[in-house]
Amino acid sequence: MLKIYRNLKPYTVSIIMILVFLFLQVMSDLYLPTLMSDIVNNGIMTKNIGYIWKTGEYMLLIAAGGVICAVVAGFLGARVSVGLGRILRNRIFRRVENFSLHEFDRFGSSTLITRTTNDIIQIQTVTIMIINMMIRAPLTCVGGIFQAYHQDRTLTLILAIALPVLILIIYLVTSKVVPIFRQVQRKLDRINLILRENLTGIRVIRAFNKIDHEKARFETANKDLTDTYIHVNRIMAVLMPMMMLIMNLVTVCVLWFGSKRIDTGEMNLGALMAFVQYAMQIMFSLLMFVMMFVMIPRAQAAADRINEVLSTEPEIIDPQLPEPAAAEKGYVEFRNVTFRYHGAEQSAIQNVSFSVKPGETTAIIGGTGSGKSTLINLIPRFYDADEGQVLVDGIDVKAMPQEELRNKIGFVPQKARLFTGTVDENLRYGKEDASEDEIRHAADVAQASEFISQMSDGYDSMLSEGGQNLSGGQKQRLSIARALVRRPEIYVFDDSFSALDFKTDAKLRAALKKDTQKATVIIVAQRVGTVMDADRIIVLDEGSVAGIGTHSELLKSCGVYREIVASQLSEEELA
Ligand SMILES: Nc1ncnc2c1ncn2[C@@H]1O[C@H](COP(=O)(O)OP(=O)(O)OP(=O)(O)O)[C@@H](O)[C@H]1O
User: Fold this and answer.
1) What is the DSSP pairing of strand 490-494 with strand 409-412?
2) Which of 340, 373, 523 to mutate for ligand 1's pocket (most ligand atoms within 8 Å of CB)?
């Protein structure tokens, strides 16, 4: 929690003002019972109406001052806590944006969303409480005890017995609820995960008639969370009545012993009335403490989760001393590269070496899971190689600022990802200042012009979340066009033609060849037809290079390639 509160630095002045206003409010609260005691003793008992009016007006003034202080402190407190929420959300967002894919794999997106939303709201709520209570509760408690003692020393003994009992109860309850609140946060994560999977996979769920199964899965998680909430609330439910019981018992005892003391002339009525009020104020301040102690563990669980994200150092960071930009352009080289995913037993790629020159098309082919995507993910440094080196333009990618590296690359991922916005905005994603001609040309090459012109507003047509109002092939073509707009040195296509029909695939590759003549093109593909005319084909088998060469060379020299070809092409095509 304290670590989280370091983010409050910009609000130091506001917090000091809040503390001052709260201090004044507590002082006014503590002063009122003494004034009331004066009215009783010096006004009512002596029937001095003038004194009653005068002191009454004074009391009103003090009370009004207290209310104004409370309102200003409340207003400032709300601003500070909401501001803290904003700072934390920004920090998490910035940190997550810098995460390498390893960190994404480790956390998972559902929990990152819960941490950025729900957890921060927890912190916000508790912050308002802490700001309000942190000073008010102890000050009222200590001030109240002091004033009560001042009114009557003997009656203070009742408080000396009741307060430790209250504190013990608070301790017992909070030590029980802290771990349960941690569980609540974890269970919320699980609900979010199921919800996310259901929303994104709704088509699959319907197609497989799994609606009932998913309902049951959600219901189980929902019930689990509800049960935990009920459990914790049950414990909490005991707390309030216990507190109230003790408070009422204290009042009864104070009145009982107080009236006896008045009887014997050891105490006056005003002092007793003031004492009762101070006893109440002390108890209520402890109640406030309880509320805080109940909320803090929950916020602590949220704070731990937020701190975990904020303290996770991205594995992939820019070099301290980047190498000067290379004069060469479009060279990619793998030198004995081995890479293993965290937690995986085997390397996803082992000892891979090859080099690629500008003006060449290099294709990577292999069975599913052979490591094709893994291999090309190392070029833009989505992951770092464990052994060996990946060089772009002769410089190790680890020695290059990420922005400079990624500016060189036009990456088309396996799964076309588009963003909410117009077609034009999506195509400009990598180059905002692209001219209209550049946008249209890229769409022409990607064979996307035709379907874009058929859309209701052409290039200004809106795409829904993730481009859901487009077909798979249309999405792929837009995502290819988006990379083409940037005119990078190196194009990387990760199985980006898989959703296209053969005719469009062939037309697109022909147009692409013309358009990217001077660039370096790396294509990952499953279809032999897509890679056949590449200048160089790299055949991957279980993460290792099984062969490198042209189509005809590999047909002669590489068994794995022959098998892939045989499974896809007819005898005549092979001949
Ligand atoms: N994020 C990840 N965490 C752990 N293991 C992974 C991860 N991504 C891929 N793998 C594993 O690494 C291996 C290679 O996967 P990769 O995605 O590179 O294969 P691929 O050749 O591109 O397959 P496909 O053609 O089916 O896309 C697989 O065994 C896969 O299970």
Assistant:
1) parallel
2) 373
Question: At 82, which helix (H) or strand (E)?
Answer: helix 49-98
Please give the model's pTM, rounded to 2 decimal places: 0.74
Report the separation in Å between the CA atom of 341 and the middle of ligand 1, taken as the mean of its atom positions: 9
Q: What is the 3-state secondary structure (H, E, C) of 458-500?
A: HHHCEECHHHCCCCHHHHHHHHHHHHHHCCCCEEEEECCCCCC
Q: How far, in Å, is the centroid of ligand 1 from the Cα of 178?
A: 40
Q: Which residues line ligand 1 (CB under 6 A)?
A: 105, 341, 344, 348, 366, 368-374
Give the Cα separation of 346 and 446 in Å (integer).
Answer: 37
Distance 375 CA to ligand 1 centre (A): 10
**Angle at 318 (CA atoms; ends 313, 321), nearest 5 degrees:** 130
Q: How far is the CA of 373 from the centre of ligand 1 (A)?
A: 7
Residue ranges of domains in the chain, CATH in brackets? 2-310 (1.20.1560.10), 332-574 (3.40.50.300)
ipTM over 0.85? The verdict is yes
Distance from the alpha carbon of residue 225 to the mean position of ligand 1, in angstroms: 34
- Ligand 1 atom with the shortest distance to the CA of 343: 4
**Contact between residue 535 and residue 360 where contact means Cβ atoms under 8 Å apart:** yes
Q: How far is the CA of 561 from the centre of ligand 1 (A)?
A: 20
Centre of ligand 1 to C-alpha 340, Å, is: 10
Taking CA atoms only, the protein residue closest to ligand 1 atom 24 is: 368
Give the residue, by CA position, lying nearest to ligand 1 atom 1. Answer: 105
Task: Please state, in angstroms and rounded to a whole number, the distance separating the CA atoms of residues 529 and 523.
Answer: 12
Q: State the Cα–Cα distance between residues 404 and 121, nearest whole angstrom.
A: 37
Q: Return the residue whose CA atom lies nearest to atom 2 of ligand 1.
A: 341
Per-residue model confidence as pLDDT tens for the chain (575 residues):
888 888 999 999 999 999 999 999 999 999 999 999 999 989 988 888 999 999 999 999 999 999 999 999 999 999 999 999 999 999 999 999 888 888 888 888 878 888 899 889 989 988 888 888 877 888 899 999 999 998 888 889 998 998 888 888 878 887 888 788 778 878 887 888 898 888 878 888 988 889 999 999 999 999 999 999 999 888 888 877 888 888 899 999 999 999 999 999 888 899 999 999 999 899 888 878 777 777 777 788 789 889 999 999 888 888 888 888 777 788 999 999 999 998 888 899 999 999 998 998 999 999 888 999 999 999 999 999 999 999 999 999 999 999 999 999 999 998 888 998 999 999 999 888 889 999 999 999 999 999 899 988 899 999 887 777 888 889 999 999 999 998 999 999 998 887 788 888 888 888 888 888 889 999 998 888 888 888 999 999 999 999 999 999 998 888 899 988 888 766 555 55
* CA 563/CA 555 separation, integer angstroms: 9
Closest C-alpha residue for ligand 1 atom 11: 348
Pocket test for ligand 1, best of 339, 342, 350, 370 (most atoms within 8 A of CB): 370
